[in-house]
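Ticket #332: bound-state structure for oxa(dethia)-CoA.
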Amino acid sequence: MYKNAYISAVAHYVPEKVLTNFDLEKMVDTSGEWIRTRTGIKERRILEDGKATSDMAAEAVKNICKLRGIDPMEIEGIIVATVTPDMFFPSTGNLVQEKSGAKNAWSFDVAAACSGFLYALSIGTQYIKAGTHSKIVVVGADKMSAITNYRDRNTCVLFGDAAGAVLLEPTDDEQIGLIDFMLFSDGSGAEYLKLKAGGSLYPASLETVANDWHFIYQDGKYVFKFAVSKMAEVAVNIIEKHGYSGKDLKLFVPHQANLRIIDATVKRLGIDYDKVMINIEKFGNTTAATIPLALSEAWEQGKLNKNDLVLFATFGGGFTWGSTLLRWAYDK
Ligand code: UT7
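RESOLUTION: The complex was predicted; output attached.
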C-alpha cells in the first residue's frame, strides 16, 4: 500500500534576548547600515548563559506536541540537526528526548551545518515511508552565539540562536507530503567555513584557545560565491525534475544566511517575493534552524494551505547544499 511522509505540524522556539545591529556597533567596528545592506539582518536572538541548544530544541518539540494535540510519549524518534550540540556526547537528541518528555523515542544528531535540517528531514522521511514508524520529529537547532567570536566583525553580525521542528507522519493521500530531496556535498569547501578546534584534529589546548580556533571561521566572499550559484541551481533543478516551474510554487522557504543569496535564488526561480518566506531581518543566520523557523512563521502567518507546492533550499558549511519539494498537507 502507498505510504508517504507528510509534515503534520511545525513549531519553533526563539530566545527572548534581542541583539540589534545598534548593539553590535558598540561591540565591534561595524555599522547597522553595513550589516543591513550587506546581509539583510537587523537583529538576532541570543540564548541566555547556562542554557543550550537542547533547551531550545525541547521547547520546539513541546510546542509541536501542543499544536498537534499529542502526548510527547507518542513520538517514536527524534532527529536533531545541529552544529552546536550541548556537548560531543551524548547526542543533543538524547537531551531533547529527556527534556521534552518524549521518553519512548530513540534519538540522534545529524551534522550537515546549515543544510542539516534538510538532511535530517530526508532521514526522517525514510523511516515513515518504510512503514516502520508513524511519528518522527525532525529538529533544526543551533546556539550559534556559543561559537561566535564577538570581537570578529566578519562573523559576529551574521548569526543568532533558534530552534524549529516538524512532525512527520504517514499518509495514503498521494496529493500531499514530501515529494523529493536533492542533497549534495563538496568536501573541498571544508576549509572556507569551519570551527577548527575541539575535535580530534585539534583537541582543546591553550594554543587553540589563544588562536580563537573554537570560534566560527568563514571566508565570506568565497562561501558567498559558491552559495549563490549552488542554492539557485539546486532550487531550480528540483522543480524542473518534477515538471514544474516557479509559477507552480506557492511558497519558497530558503536558508536565511544572506538576503543577497536569497535574492539571487528568487531571480533564478522567477517568482514574486510574496511567495518567498524571509525572516532574516529578525533572526539572522540560525544555521540548522533557519528553514523550520521560517516555515513555522509562514504557517502562523497563514501562508500555507493544503496542496500548496512548497520548496526548501539551503547551502552551508562542508560544503553541503540541497533542496526539498513537498505538497503542504493541511489548512490553518
Ligand atoms: O550559512 C552558511 C553559509 N554562509 C553564507 O552563505 C555566508 C556567505 N557570505 C556572506 O554572506 C558575505 O560574504 C558576508 C556578509 C559574510 C560579507 O559580505 P561581503 O559583501 O562578501 O563583504 P566582504 O567580506 O567582501 O567585505 C567587504 C568589506 C571588507 O573591507 P575591505 O577589505 O574592503 O576594506 C571587510 O573588512 O567589508 C568589511 N567588513 C565589514 N565592515 C563593516 C566585513 N564585515 C564587516 C562588518 N562591518 N561587520
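RESOLUTION NOTES: Residues 220-241 form the longest helix (22 residues).
TICKET STATUS: resolved
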